[in-house]
Amino acid sequence: MADRFARPRRRRLVPGPLGERLRPYRVLLAARARAQMQYRTSFVTDILGTVGVGLTELAEVWIIFHNVDVLGGLDFTAALLVFALSNIGFSLADMVVGHLDTLPTYIRMGQVDAFYVRPLPLLSQFMTSDISLRRVGRLGVAVVALVVALSRADVHWSVATVALIALTIVSGTAIFTALFTAAGGLQFFFVDGAEFTNSMTYGGSYAAQQSQRVFPDPLRILWTFVIPTAFVAYFPTLAILDLPGDRLGSPWLAWCSPLAALVAWLAAAACWRAGTRHYQGAGG
Amino acid sequence: MRTFRLLVRAGFRRHSTYRLALLAGMTTNSVFGIIRASILLAAVASAGSAIGGYTGPMAAAFVWWGQALLGTVNLWGFQEVKERVRSGDIAVDFLRPLNPQLTYLAGDIGRAGINFLARGMPALLIGALLFDLAWPPGLLAWLVGFLSVALAVVVAFAGNFIVNLASFWLIEVRGLQLVWMIVSGLFCGLYLPVPWFPGWLRTIADWSPWPAMLQHPLDILSGRVVGTDVALVLANQLGWALVLLGLGQVVLRAGRRHLEVQGG
């Protein structure tokens, strides 16, 4: 309320109806971000915590390569690149929609009904209901890993390489966002069994961090065509480092990651739609 | 003793109420089990025949027993005691005739029991159907393995209980719990077997209580540790259980003196 009276001029600067439509979200997100940074010590501890989570995941890769030179056709640098790309995509998605995970709590408390009566779409309300800035810690670890991996590797830099990295990060984030959203839609059916969908979101993220060649064929088909996490990091790594693929994964597939993201989003939209149609209120 | 037994049973029943949640947990544990086993088997194959004493079947057994025990051993901690300290309800616990630590230990053992049966065993069965697992070498090894699991439950509870008690002095122990979760996850063998660690990291693990929470029972159940070494492993677990329970009592007593509950 205070915002409306305090800064009327700012409002006029926003050009066009799109900016006007997005304004509530911007205000909401800014408020959430400010709220999270209010308790400075707690915020810093939370960030250090997610840095710690990122580092343990990294340690896992490092410990394995302490024992072997090659895993699933990748050396340490290539594995580091897979780790970095998948973690960047996952932590960005987790930051924006990771809290869809807590949907069963909202459902049980009857708070979903409150979302329904507000004049904004349900999904975008959920997305902006929180933004987990603390996850920036894990993102930081992933970005450092990306820089280290790219500087260690023998990359033939070109416009195509840069474009591919950017494309990979965008599609990777989109794919994980889709997985979280699909999981959120399914929560309306499960409620108590919310952990079912963890195998799709967190399991998918864990699978995305690996060289796909460690998996048996049926799983590789699953990670390529059903839950397309192989597109998040493994295929792009093959293309960036100019590595040979095999019959179930070729470097050129890296360029198909936007397609995979699109399909994942169509499926996610269907899941979300089914979920919200199924929801009948908590009687609040 | 009778009270303790009744509390164990109550914990068991309380956590068996949410059947769908148990099934969901089992499913997720199994999916992660398949991914982790694939990685470890690929690593063992890449290294030759074994890494750190783990052959392929042993590594697969390590993963699947680990996934099976994930819900049994309380590695990720609990919030209940922390919340009760913060709200002041812990004062009620102090008035009860049974020591609060033992009350919560009983509840946790019950929780471990239902999770072991309903969540752990089906996950292990799936693992055994999908992968070639190494099994304990004899009946005695099975029994000792289960004893080791029980000790792991106690050690993990005792450690988490102390972390929860920190809320007598700190307003928010979430950061502390997160650090505990991260460090214990790494050193208890939740991600990779401790014997795979580089030397210095392994030394840290060997002197810490964390391997007693998962790595030790996994070593016995996957048949990596056999013979007299089993006794050493059990002694290590028993030692840590007693040390952490004792430390918990000391902290609990100090917290009790420190506690001030407003209103009534």
From TrEMBL, chain A:
Keywords: Membrane, Transmembrane, Transmembrane helix. The chain crosses the membrane at residues 43-65, 77-100, 136-153, 159-180, 221-240, 252-272. InterPro entries: ABC-2_transporter-like. The keyword Transmembrane helix applies. The keyword ATP-binding does not apply. This is ABC transporter permease.
UniProtKB/TrEMBL annotation, chain B:
The keyword Cell inner membrane does not apply. It comes from the Bacteria. The chain crosses the membrane at residues 20-46, 58-78, 116-135, 141-171, 178-197, 230-252. InterPro entries: ABC-2_transporter-like (IPR010390). Keywords: Membrane, Transmembrane, Transmembrane helix. The keyword Nucleus does not apply. This is ABC transporter permease.
